Amino acid sequence: MLLVLLPCRRQFYRRSSLISEPFTAGWTLAVASAVLFSFWLGFFVHRHVEYSSELWWQFTLRGDAPRFLRAATGVMVAGAVLALYRLLRTARPVAPGQGPADLDAVREVVSRATSAGAHLALVGDKSFLFSPGRDAFIMYATQGRSRIAMGDPVGPPGACVELIRRFRDDCRRQELWPVFYEVTPDDLPQYLDAGFTLSKMGEEGRVPLGDFSLEGSSRKGMRRVTSHLERQGGVFEIVPAESLPPILPRLRTISDKWLAAKSAREKRFSLGFFNEPYLRQTPAAIIRQNNEIRAFATLWLSGGKEELSIDLMRYEPDTLDDTMEYLFIRLMLWGQEQGYRWFNLGMAPLAGMEDGDHAPLWHRMGSFLYRHGEHFYNFQGLRAFKDRFDPVWRPMYLASPGGFGLPVILANIATLISGGPKGIVSR
Asked: Contact, 123 vs 311, CB < 8 A?
């Protein structure tokens, strides 16, 4: 058999866990002790029964000794099968640690990236796969059998094409599902060529800033919001990253109150969370009233002034109505002054999905949840709020192996973003 398999050695590319068994010595000792103690207890209880080969096939109403022998044999066989499976299965990978040089390379690539979402690499909850020239990377995290990349690869297009294939091949070696979450239409051919299945996840809204203005009848509501907030003493301000440390305690207080009022917990992966080392790396927009900070949003500024966006957006529960809309308006005007092309409003989940008879099953399910899932998430309200700014909508996709594993992949993504299973079911 060895001679038959040797020519096929290159096909066996997955590493087994024969020498990387995750069971610790303590766990192994505890399991072995429990099994051995149960065997001793059985022999002790039935010590008065004289052993004979007939015990193995005696089936009687009160035949406890034969039942014990057969059960003990079953436990030993099951234990042997489980041990063999664990030794020969594919070893679960350990996420590589990121050193200072890796983090410096990430910051350098992010500073040149044309997508504002590249700043998610700075949050500190992801691992990275770098291109050979370290001029591009994929940021990812592993949940269950899914290795999930956040967005498209970050970097030059030529390096990103090869990264997609490397990411796919690495996942296959480790018996993981390769997944790209929230990919843009620009690189869809690359994912299709690499064997991925595409599923629409929603639509992303971007406001063109070149002709953005508060003039005209269609912007009457925005002018009203702006004048009302400023009459009430609202003041908009951009705070550079280096000036943030003194006001971080105040921002922390606002964030904690906002989470408590929403009965929410911090999200992960696809959104940043209140983490002071992360916040110190980006500027912030704040709203003051009576010289006190009442609301803030952390800013993502892309390279080449292609687009800007916001990540964390928090405000005092008793702040003035329309404060967040005022913050968006002022940010768009500021971005226009600075020469940015787009303001990225982020994604509206499940928006724009077909619901006809010929639509894919996932689209029909997503459309149904979009229309009737307001108790769990404000799908339609979020889309309506972003529509006030007349954005250009573009579809966003999930690139995955597809098939029957898609529901599990979606559950893994939800678990990763929610910070655990508890976050999925909580309000």
From this structure: no
Give the span between the Cα atoms of 198 and 200, in whole angstroms.
Answer: 7
The 10s digit of each residue's pLDDT in 340-354 is: 999 999 998 888 777
Asked if 284 and 297 count as a contact pair (C-beta separation under 8 A), the reply is yes
Distance CA 117, CA 110 (A): 9
346-403: pLDDT as tens digits: 998 888 777 777 777 777 777 777 776 666 677 788 888 899 999 999 999 999 997 8
Alpha carbon distances (Å) from 385 to 213, 277, 328, 381, 395: 18, 31, 11, 6, 18
User: Could you tell me if 308 and 344 are in contact, meaning their C-beta atoms sit under 8 angstroms apart?
Assistant: yes
3-state DSSP assignment of residue 123 = coil
Kindly provide the residue ranges of all beta strands, DSSP E only, lying in 259-333, ordered along the sequence: 284-289, 292-301, 307-315
Element (H or E) spanning 365, and its range? helix 361-372
Which token pair is 410?
């979606």
Which DSSP state fits 23?
A: -
Residue 287's closest CA among 263, 266, 313?
A: 313
CA 15 to chain centre: 26
- Residue 131 to residues 10, 158, 194, 358: CA-CA distances in angstroms? 24, 10, 17, 41
**Strand partners for 129:** 138
